[in-house]
Every structure is written in structure tokens, then in C-alpha cells.
Amino acid sequence: MIHGRSGRKLKRTASHRRATLSALSTSLLRHKKIRTTVAKAKETRMVVEKIITRAKRAVAKESEGVPKNVHARREVARFIHDKEVVKLLFNEIAPKVAGRAGGYTRVVKLGQRLGDGADVAILELVDYNVAQEETKAPARSRRARRPRKASQNKVENSAKTDAAETAPEETEQASVKTEAQTSEPEQTSAAKAADKPETTA
């Protein structure tokens, strides 16, 4: 019976797996949202939540009057190899999630990707709500368009009825013009015959 064998190997060696999770964690903290496979997203979530908790506890103690916790920053920097991201974590992200007792990330499944058919997901920080803002924006624009379409249909219908009313008048005027044009050549031919002098044989 197997005990104590947790986590996913992700088809990598230990060093390669650590580098992959470090890169994914850095990208998540920098961009607040990443797109990857479901297996990598779930593994990255476990790593990132521990890092955020470490930073949150350090920031909470600093707010109580304790000097700046350099040791906590060095522990995080062992795994996050970007100084700007470490600063962002301690200065912006940790204070924002201070009131949340865990569960800082969310995995949203997107289905299978083309090519290899791997299950793809979005891993994002919950307090930034990047995906929800993107989905809400189109809904507002659709609601604003509905009255415009109705008013356009009314304008088109009124234009059609006006055209239908003016059509009989136009046909009557056209028939009068054609009758006048046909009578004019007859009158001109009769006038020409009257003007010609009679020739005697």
C-alpha cells in the first residue's frame, strides 16, 4: 500500500518540476491570471497559496509595529526569482488579501485545447476578478443595443409604408407622361404635313 506519495510529477524531474512551478507562480503574481493545463494549475495553486500566506502573515506583523520582516522576503525570494514580483507581493497583494482566510486563487476549466487535447484552465487570483470583469462587459453593451434595434425597425417600417403610399401616385404620373409623349409625335407629324407645299404632278 502506497502512503505519503502526494502531488503530480508532471512528467518532469524534480529540478524541472520546481522550475516550472516557480515560473508559473511568478507569472500568476505578476499578471494576476494565467492560462495553463488543469494539472499544472492545480499544482501551482498549492504553491502560490503557501507563498501568499507567508507574505500575508509577515505584513500583518509589520502593521502591528514589528520591524520589516526581511527573513520572510528572503524565503519567498528562494522560490520567486524576480525582485519586482516579490515587492508586488508584499506591498500590494498581501495587504489586499489580508481579510481572506485562504483560498486566494481560482481554477476555471476551459475544456480541451486543439492539438493534443489537453484539459486547459485559467488560474487567477480571486480578489482581482479579472475574468468576471471581462464577461460582464459584453452583457452591458448588448442591453444598450436592444432599444436601438427596435427604433431602427420602426424607422424602416415607416419608410416602407411611405414608399407604398407614394408608389401609386408615381405610377399615375408616369402614365400621364407617357400619354403626353405619344400624343406629341402625332401632333408634330400633322403640323409638318400642313406646312409642306402641295406639289402638282
Would you summarize the structure shown here?
This protein has 201 residues and is mainly alpha-helical.
Written account of the structure:
The chain is mainly α. It has five helices and three strands. The chain has a three-stranded antiparallel sheet. α1 (14-31) packs across α2 (38-63) and α2 (38-63) crosses α4. The protein is elongated, with a radius of gyration of 40 Å. It starts with 13 loop residues before the first helix and ends in a 6-residue tail after the last helix.
Label this structure with key terms.
201 residues, 5 helices, mainly alpha, 3-stranded antiparallel sheet
Helices and strands, with pairings:
Blueprint: H1 14-31, E1 33-37, H2 38-63, H3 70-77, H4 83-96, E2 105-112, E3 119-125, H5 130-195
Antiparallel strand pairs: 1-3, 2-3
Helix pairs in contact: 1-2, 2-4
Q: Measured on Cα atoms, how large is the radius of gyration?
A: 40 Å
Measured distance between first and last alpha carbons: 138 Å
Helical proportion, percent range: 55-70%
Number of strands: 3
Can you tell me the residue ranges where pLDDT is under 50 for at least 5 consecutive residues? none
Overall mean pLDDT? 81
Write the H/E string, N to C.
HEHHHEEH
Q: Sheet with the most strands?
A: 3 strands, antiparallel
- Inertia-based shape: elongated
Structural class: mainly alpha
Main-sheet strand order equals 1-3-2
| Residue share in β-strands | 5-15%
What's the number of helices?
5
